[in-house]
Design brief:
Blueprint lengths: L5 H14 L7 H8 L3 H17 L4 E5 L5 E5 L4 H15 L5 E2 L3 E2 L2 H4 L2 H13 L8 E5 L4 H11 L3 E4 L10 E7 L5 E7 L8 E9 L3 H13 L2 E11 L11 E9 L4 E6 L8
Parallel strand pairs: 5-6, 5-9, 9-10, 10-11
Antiparallel strand pairs: 1-2, 3-4, 7-8, 11-12
Length: about 270
């Protein structure tokens, strides 16, 4: 095999790591792939770690232990998160996107891959420490950002549905009170999750918290621990939701008199973490 130069090796290594966020690759894997010694690979990883940190491209972490190695996490600095979300808020504020019932049109935002990917990275950054086993969302508008978050965390995406599907086998069904006050049904295949796992709930919109509370109750039926809840947008009113401890990226306040939307970054984004 022709000797691989360091710049070639490092380029390929970064591509492999960034394509599989939060997945641990052993040094032996790269040694076998590039035909290099462990000491050489360790030096390459140290250089990559400095580059990734210097340019705010995430985090390259060495994991010790028998199953250790190196993994890449798409961590986003708080200042960068605040700037990105602030730009989105400016695009969404005003009168053009206001819908009847105190809602806001932003489906175009949720279907733009680079925007959704970045939101998923911001959400994942806040929950790496909780080590969720999967991401849960409710069909259908929340699926893109939930998928992006699951990808950044390196875990599966699980989708709760409004009715059970025959191709998913037996399912658990629960009733919950939606934001409008009506009784809705939520369904999840018994094979989708396992008792004792940890779950991160991700969805697009939070108003009263009825659907989110339904997802929490659904996870309790499976014996799954909810380690966090995060949303693209929440409404300023009602102030008291049916859930607590959630994080949204943006907060929406509708001026009903002028039919204008005021969208701001969530308060927690003002921190320096």
């Amino acid at each position: 095999m022709e000797k691989i130069r360091r710049n070639e090796r490092m380029s390929a290594m970064m591509k492999i790591l960034s394509d599989a966020p939060n997945r641990i690759f052993t040094l032996s894997h790269f040694c076998d792939l590039f035909g290099a010694a462990k000491s050489t690979m360790s030096e390459d990883i140290d250089i990559l770690r400095e580059v990734v940190s210097q340019f705010g491209l995430g985090e390259l972490e060495t994991v010790t232990g028998a199953a250790g190695g190196v993994r890449y996490r798409t961590k986003v600095r708080r200042t960068e998160s605040r700037a990105f979300i602030g730009d989105l808020c400016q695009r969404l504020s005003g009168t053009e996107r206001v819908l009847p019932g105190g809602f806001l049109y932003y489906s175009d935002i949720l279907s733009t891959p680079d925007i959704v990917s970045r939101m998923g990275e911001i959400m994942a950054t806040e929950y790496y420490a909780q080590s969720p086993d999967f991401v849960l969302t409710m069909e259908t508008k929340g699926i893109p950002v939930a998928y992006a978050t699951a990808n950044a965390l390196g875990v599966p995406l699980v989708i709760a549905r409004r009715s059970s599907k025959v191709y998913e086998g037996s399912a658990v069904n629960i009733n919950y009170v939606s934001g409008s006050g009506s009784i809705e049904t939520m369904s999840l295949s018994r094979r989708a999750v396992k008792e004792g796992q940890k779950c991160l709930i991700v969805d697009d919109f939070l108003k009263g918290g009825g659907t989110a509370k339904g997802m929490v109750d659904l996870m309790h039926e499976f014996g799954v621990t909810v380690v966090g809840m995060t949303f693209v947008m929440s409404t300023a009113k009602p102030l008291k939701k049916r859930i607590s401890g959630e994080k949204s990226l943006m907060v929406l306040d509708i001026d009903a008199e002028n039919e204008a939307a005021n969208v701001k970054p969530a308060f927690w984004l003002n921190g320096d973490a």
